[in-house]
Amino acid sequence: xxxxxxxxxxxxxxxxGRVVLDIDFSKAIACWAGHAGCEPEAIVARYVRDEAxxxxxxxxxxxxxYFSSLRSSLGISISDVQFLEGWxxxxxxxxxxxxxxxxxxxxxxxxxAFSNTNRxxxxxxxxxxxxxxxxxxxxxxxxSIGLRKPDAEAFDHVVAAMGVPASRIVFFDDLAENIExxxxxxxxxxxxxxxxxxxxxxxxxxx
Length: 207
Known about the structure:
49% of the residues lie in helices and 14% in strands. The chain has 207 residues and is of the alpha/beta class. The chain has two domains: 11-20 and 95-204, 3-Layer(aba) Sandwich (Rossmann fold); 26-90, Putative phosphatase, domain 2 (DNA polymerase, domain 1, Orthogonal Bundle). Pfam families: Hydrolase. It comes from Bradyrhizobium manausense.
């Protein structure tokens, strides 16, 4: 964890998956396997976050086109509705403690979110987790801004939109590649590897 101290930040920027919202992708696999009548392991072996996945995350291809790509790569003949059911089944609730930490942080400084995500997930979590997400001043979502982490231009876009110097932003993410990308653009970073890390970092900031 980067050295943090009271007064060292003017804004906080949070990833959503496994930082604010818990994610369990095995639920999607199990749902799809159930509809397809195959073993989950068969889908796990074929599933990759490929170019179609990345294009879907930046809003360049439709949900139907992405599910068509999955139908081909996974070798299963299930409907778009069935794909969507599994796709949205990955959300496993809020991360432990985050419902107390976010409002406390938001009382002291602006809090924002920056997530690589797609339109169906945005539609789903905006509805299901409206309370906890309501603490964010703004959500920067890859499918809306057309840019995704860990690309430099994505971080530059978000920093400019926030209007806060990069060095005064503390960024929380669970993926090392995103932490490295943020650090390269001058942000202060916290690599979230357990649900305790956010609370520890906020305490170090005097929050």
